Here is the input.
Amino acid sequence: MNLRASAKRFFPRNPRMIGSALAALAVLTTTATACGGSDTGGHESDGVPFKTAEKGHLTVTYSESYLPKIATGEEGQLIGYEGFLLTKVAEKYGLKLKLKPTEFASQVLFVSQGKADVGTGTYYTDKRAKQVFYSRPNVNDRLGALMLKNASWSGVDSLKGKPIASVTGYSYNDYLIKAYGESNVKLFPSYAEAAKATLNKQVSAFMGSTGTAPGIIKQNPQLTLHALADGDLDLPANILVSPTYDYVRCDNAGLADAVDEVLDELIESGEWQKQLDSWGVGGEEYLPSRNRPDQLCA
Amino acid sequence: METSWISFLIRGFETTVMLVVISSVITVVAAAVVALGRISTRRSVRLLTRVYVEVFRSIPLPVLLAGLYFGFGPQFENIGVTAFGLAVLGLVLNETAYLAEVYRGLISSVRIGQWRAAASLGLTRWQTLRHVLIPQVTTAAGPQTANGIIYLVKGSALASLITVPELTMYGTRLVVDTFRPLEVYLLIAVFYLLLTVPVAYVTRAMTGRRGRVRPKRGPHTRPDAPRDSAGSSPQHTEKAWTSTST
Here is the structure.
């Protein structure tokens, strides 16, 4: 059978089906263009010096089960130290909290597209800073390998050739892939699933941080965190020890001011330190600077 | 959109293609076996396959995949089954249940007279299935099989939930890196179209054109004209074969 005959057999004699496929693609494009990005301007609320996605509500997006930073409590409230901070912000301005937990990879888009007012627990990168406006940092994180206590650990090289968990969207994933190889770095949709895989021994370690590990260790004492040392995995210093921020829409810097103001009040009153201590996140290294990072919002 | 996006997404596309091809082959074979089990003369086999169909077509695919990976993952890994293997297993278990019912319906739609005719010729049940019934339903099964494979293509996007680095996962990574979801997801849609559109053509080529009936001009196509096939005659009231009629 010649090539022409083969082609005739596999493809239609008339182009109607190809036309249908192209038409479907055109419909898809039109729909996506019409629906893509809901850049709402936000609502003004009485006595509130910033805009909110929904009148009278402070909409928060976060990773579910991301303790000790943030999570949904049993009664539908926010828990964790960042949850505590945002609850105080809502209380101060008479707003109700509206919770929008989602995958880490979607959170910056949730805020930049106006679906949520504030995002949480994120490191600074230039690309993110072009999308959202950062608050001042609330805690410093040092990266580490979350592992079972009985698993052998003699430094980052001891994990080479073994499966390592991380979460899709984490800023240090590229460094992990470079160090351990793409096939060994298993990307999970969320923190909870990556931690579960570590407990199941489906991965040898989960690359977490000092700011997040205490929560999972509190729930699962068989785990421990091996903090990474300077120079490990060729990580830049600002990735190895990274301040963690909340962030808001580029045109809603007033909300970042409000978050920072409440954080300052909590630090001054000593309540913030109590929160960190209650979760086992403490020490000089974890106190971040008061300065906001470079804002690159358009 | 940059050309580097395409080369990045192709890495995930390769995994998606592998996932779909392997799952499709296993699903089609398994669905045929389960369909035959559904019309088996043995009650226990009918019951077993029915339970399988009812259970696995009722479980949402994300739940099935997560359950397999986080529930049985460690045990499977002990015997060398990776996340990719579990994704294949999840897709196959889910889609086989659907497709088996489709195949069963097609076999059941064949007129009982054909079973009787085959029996009168001395054919065994297996010979009747192999030489009489299955050749008749193969053509009709083509579009349904294509639908099933397209479902597998779409279902493969959920494999990223259990760390399989397929197209959607690469797409998500690209969105996180570029913050241009519209362009990235449109590009991913094109990749999926590249997989799904040829499925219909390939399935049609494989099942042949034997069953295609085109209306012809002439006396035979008049509404009142008698048809030469007894089974397709509107006056023909012969009962369709069902598993309970055996």
